[in-house]
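haha ok so turns out i had the wrong file open the whole time. this is the CORRECT one, sorry everyone. sequence first:
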Amino acid sequence: MIGNLSGIVDEVHSDHIILNVNDVGYIVYLSAKTLNACSTGSKIKLLIETCANNRENITQLYGFISREEQQCLRLLVKVSGVSYKTAMSILSKLTPEQLFLAIMNEDKATLKISGLGLKLINRIITELSGKVSKLEINNSNFHPINEDALSALINLGYEKTRVYDTIKKYRPNLDTKEIIRMALKELSTL
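then structure:
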């Protein structure tokens, strides 16, 4: 098993990179968020998850910058019907914190990602709601969020992940109207 790899990014593709470690090129699949942090020629250290695909008789490497994202993948693939590829597509759209909140709040709309049907979403929520405490979310990044402000901005047509990322910057003890006003100002400039 491989725990982590450090090397230089040789090539960046749509869903993976080729990581040069001592003149050996490893194909490492990444989430879109991790992929955005990579550029050709940059040095990077990735936590590695190894998947043996017996059907195709290949071994695939999945890389992560954060331990939280790796732990999310490990939990997701334990759900019946969730492959590594499906788990990576979820992690490409949601941060570990967003995934945690969606499972805890049974928020099916947040988990509605292309390729995920309602049955699979329900299974993810059902099977992981008891295990979600194992997600070691970094407490400095974990903030309670004003659900009323979130709902109001989504109803105005803004994308949920953008709204969430905007609202989490504000202190939760602020008045809902104030949070909405500040968020609208920021979202309209993006």
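The longest strand covers residues 43-53.
again sry for the mixup
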